[in-house]
Amino acid sequence: MKKRAIWCLFAVAICLFGLSLLGLGKFGLGTFQSRAPSPVTIAAPHLNRAEESIAKATRTHFQAIDALFVRSRSQSPTFAKSALGWGSKWRIIADATPFTRGDRHAEYLKEQFEAQVLKGEDLSKAIEQAVNEFLAEIRNSESKMLVDLRVDVEDFKSTYELGRMDSAEVQSQFDAAVENAMLISGNDLQSNISSQLVSIVVGEVLTQVAIRLGVSAGILGTGAASGWFTLGVGVIVGLVIDQIVSAIWTHISDPQKNLEEELNIQLKVMQRLICFGDKDTKGLVQHFEEIAKSRAELRRVAVSKLLGAAPDSIPSTK
């Protein structure tokens, strides 16, 4: 009986202790279960995941460019045949005739190249598509981040206003915070992602292609040089004119095959530089990385605003 009494008293004590905990939680006297985590604790994992996702996207989304250059290389035999045919030969002779225009051959090759291999307009569209797909990836990653962030603070609505917003309001508040951060910091990200990026990338790339492959000054002085102002398809034509001239008038075992191979090499160089650049040239990857870095800072400031924290209270993820 004595042992039973002891066990009964022990059970009552446990019950009373449990009830006291419930009472403390109910009346706000014990906040150990409902204490809201800090903005840094909430934001850091979401910012990290968004940044990792966007970093991966900087090296993808080149399918349109890849497809364009695959198609262009498949047409190099047709172009080589035209470039070494009689239509090309008589224009060289005509250009050498005194008191004539002197640019018939270059113009003819440019026309044939654009008709059969690569148009400046198609190159522009492919690069623009890659840029737009990357920007869409940024928006998708940030939208997912906002959804997850809102879920994380739903249990702490009294602390974070974000937990009381619907999805549309969260997105609107985020966009406004990003725009405000851009104004304060002078980080005009819009100018970096406008259509100017297309011409910047192509211009830088074509300059390096011309330098590396040793385009003669005389050749670039002809009509092919107009390519510098029209996304440069004329420039890559200029890169093969010297070889075409020599192939027409010298004995090469298979001049057409030789020209096809040279053209395909140059197209591959051009494609690689457009997408990935190198130590001397900024390709799309390098431009995307700059955009991602700028956007990451704006995103951190915007998330701080959403959580009601000071902009510098959430440290950079890098």
Outline the structure in words.
The protein is an all-alpha fold and 318 residues long. It has one domain. Helices cover 72% and strands 0% of the residues. The chain contains 14 helices and no strands. Mean pLDDT is 77; it is low at 21-33 and 216-232.
How large is the count of helical segments? Answer: 14
Report, as a whole number of angstroms, the end-to-end distance: 68 Å
H/E element order: HHHHHHHHHHHHHH
Segments where pLDDT lies below 50 for 5+ residues?
21-33, 216-232
What number of structural domains do the residues give?
1
Going by helix content, strand content and strand pairing, the class is mainly alpha
Counted beta strands: 0
- The fraction of residues in strands falls at under 5%
Biggest sheet features: none
> How much is the radius of gyration in Å?
32 Å
Mean pLDDT: 77
Roughly how much helix do the residues carry, as a percent range?
Answer: over 70%
* Shape designation: rod-shaped
